[in-house]
Design brief:
The structure is a single chain. The chain is mainly β and 568 residues long. The protein folds into 4 domains: 244 residues, TolB, C-terminal domain (Neuraminidase); 80 residues, no CATH class; 104 residues, no CATH class; 101 residues, no CATH class. Helices cover 14% and strands 40% of the residues. The N and C termini lie far apart (68 Å).
Length: 568
């Protein structure tokens, strides 16, 4: 139990009930619990007494390949009705005894009852917060931003305000908590940090907001004043929990992890995560077994070249079949979708054209000190995995995977070479005649590093591989700018677009001239990052650029932009 120092609210955990379950929530009087029991095809909604007795199914939801939002049933203030959603984001109401199932007209998810039960706030399909009457009539929009995803609305006790979660629609965005008046006015931000702040709920007197956050490095329950001030830790928790607050206590319950089961949202997410990484269909991924265990270090029983930090690391051993082949993954308890390959079918690459080993931390969000290994053949086949660890087969397909036609350019352009840097080892068996200067050897290492990251994660980060971005207003066209993007492997793009963002018009792209690239390479690996009004330079060196160098870099960018534009 934990006490908020300047308020009477204490935290009490209610023991998990029947596994496996998702999104359990207490009735307003605390006497009943509603929860769902998901599967890939159907999710059943149950109500039972909070002591575990009198279990009753009140509805079911047809799921589409396990996709879509979870039903996440929520109680009306009078405890008579539950709101939930199906996989098509249709909002339903049903009485707690299972009668009077009603589908509401607006589509969305995250339904939240107003304190008087006359209205529902919800998240629309375009990720904005809406409010409608509890019968589904008169929907009205509260938030509107194409750049942010707003979700998880929660009403204040007086019905005048709605707290919600907002995050920039980017793969590496973090969640922050906002509040807005229930009429859509006076939106304000309550949290602002690099952590994920989630699940806001007002205390009964409206003075505090209870929420979960990973700001300490693990999920924990916090309380803050309703204006965002004075955040205080209450207790650690394994999950983003569902809350109920009475006049003296913050009560919460979490889905059980008994019987070696992951929460349903994780077990259903595994096939999609692995399908993305292995470039297969989700139905080709079969979950065989999940076992909860504890490893003696953070390498979790997997061979690794980096030092393993000692200490108990709780997690999961997950066995799957992918296209009929057995694989074993290990994952930490705190992030079960951070899958580390532990056992794979015996595989190797014959006559590789590229062998790269290195620390992927230069791009993306990879952990510093890790070591990835990538092998590629001339026909785009290869292997990927931790250095000295098990490998999996990969194929360099899809434009998002480090631009496969560039790989063929490398092969036909450069002669064989081998280079060892402080962070990379590259062995290249090219079929070209050009002797790669050190700048181009580093460029190929950067390309291989980017390819390894993209293949490992099954996606490409928008900023991965970026070495510089430059822009300046377009003459005689107000509001439009010229843009130049330079990649760390020697490729550049020129375009025009609205200065504030918009669909670009591509003007040209291609390899940078060797003389120009050697000049840029010297800046990139020796100078530290620099941001000016027109320039974002992502150098990896330690020496700051002086004014003359900054001006020279901007002129270099203008010249390259002109060349790419005129080449088309």
């Amino acid at each position: 139990m934990a006490q908020i120092s300047d308020s009477p609210y204490a935290v009490v955990e209610i023991e998990p009930l029947i596994p496996p379950q998702c999104c359990p929530t207490l009735s307003p009087d605390g006497q009943k619990v509603a929860f769902s029991n998901p599967s890939a095809t159907e999710t059943k909604i149950f109500v039972q007494n909070s002591d575990g007795s009198n279990l009753k199914q009140i509805s079911s939801v047809t799921m589409t390949n396990g996709d879509g939002p979870f039903p996440d049933p929520v109680w009306s203030p009078d405890g008579q009705t539950l709101a939930f959603v199906d996989s098509d984001s249709a909002i339903y109401l049903v009485k707690a005894d299972g009668t009077n199932l009603t589908r509401l007209e607006p589509q969305g998810f995250d339904p939240a009852w107003s304190p008087d039960g006359t209205a529902l706030a919800f998240t629309s399909l375009d990720m904005d917060i809406y409010v409608m009457n509890s019968d589904g009539s008169n929907p009205r929009q509260l938030t509107a931003s194409k750049d942010f995803n707003d979700q998880r609305p929660a009403w204040s006790p007086d019905g005048q305000s709605i707290a919600f979660v907002s995050l920039f629609n980017s793969h590496d965005a973090n969640a922050e908590i906002f509040v807005i008046n229930s009429d859509g006015s006076n939106q304000r931000r309550l949290t602002d940090n690099a952590a994920n702040d989630w699940g806001p709920v007002f205390s009964p007197d409206g003075r505090h907001i209870i929420f979960t956050s990973d700001r300490s490095g693990r999920n924990a329950i916090y309380a803050m004043n309703s204006d965002g001030n004075n955040p205080q830790w209450l207790m650690d928790t394994e999950a983003k929990s569902r809350w109920r607050i009475d006049t003296t206590r913050v009560q919460f319950i979490e889905a059980s992890r008994q019987n070696n089961q992951l929460p349903a949202e994780i077990s259903q997410g595994l096939p999609f995560t692995l399908a993305q990484q292995f470039q297969v269909n989700p139905d080709e991924v079969k979950l065989v077994q999940i076992e909860q265990t504890t490893w003696p270090n953070d390498c979790m029983g997997i061979a690794a070249r980096r030092p393993c930090a000692t200490g108990d690391t709780p997690g999961y051993r997950i066995t799957v079949e992918i296209q009929g082949q057995p694989y074993e993954f290990h994952a930490p308890l705190a992030d079960p979708l951070d899958l580390r390959l532990a056992v794979s079918p015996t595989i190797d690459v014959y006559q590789p054209a590229l062998i790269w080993e290195g620390d992927p931390a230069l791009f993306g969000d990879a952990e510093t000190g890790s070591c990835l290994s990538l092998k590629l053949t001339a026909n785009d086949q290869g292997t990927l995995g931790e250095c000295d660890g098990p490998l999996r087969a990969i194929e360099l397909t899809g434009e998002q995977y480090a631009r496969p036609r560039l790989w063929q350019d490398w092969l036909t352009r450069f002669a064989p070479f081998q280079v060892d840097t402080p962070h990379d080892r590259v062995v290249f068996y090219g079929m070209g005649s050009v002797v790669a200067a050190p700048a181009w050897q580093r460029a190929m290492a950067a390309w291989a590093k980017l390819a390894a990251l993209e293949l490992r994660d099954g996606r490409s980060g928008a900023g991965w591989g970026a070495a510089m971005a430059w822009q300046q207003p377009l003459p005689n066209r107000q509001g439009y700018c010229q843009f130049l993007s330079v990649q760390a492997y020697g490729w550049a793009y020129a375009s025009t677009a609205l200065c504030d963002g918009g669909d670009p018009q591509n003007l040209g792209q291609g390899w940078i001239d060797s003389t120009q690239w050697e000049q840029f390479d010297n800046w990139f690996y020796n100078r530290s990052p620099l941001t000016t009004g027109r320039l974002s330079f992502f150098g990896v060196g330690s020496v700051e650029m002086n004014q003359a160098e900054s001006e020279a870099l901007e002129q270099w960018a203008r010249n390259l932009y002109t060349e790419l534009n005129s080449s088309q």
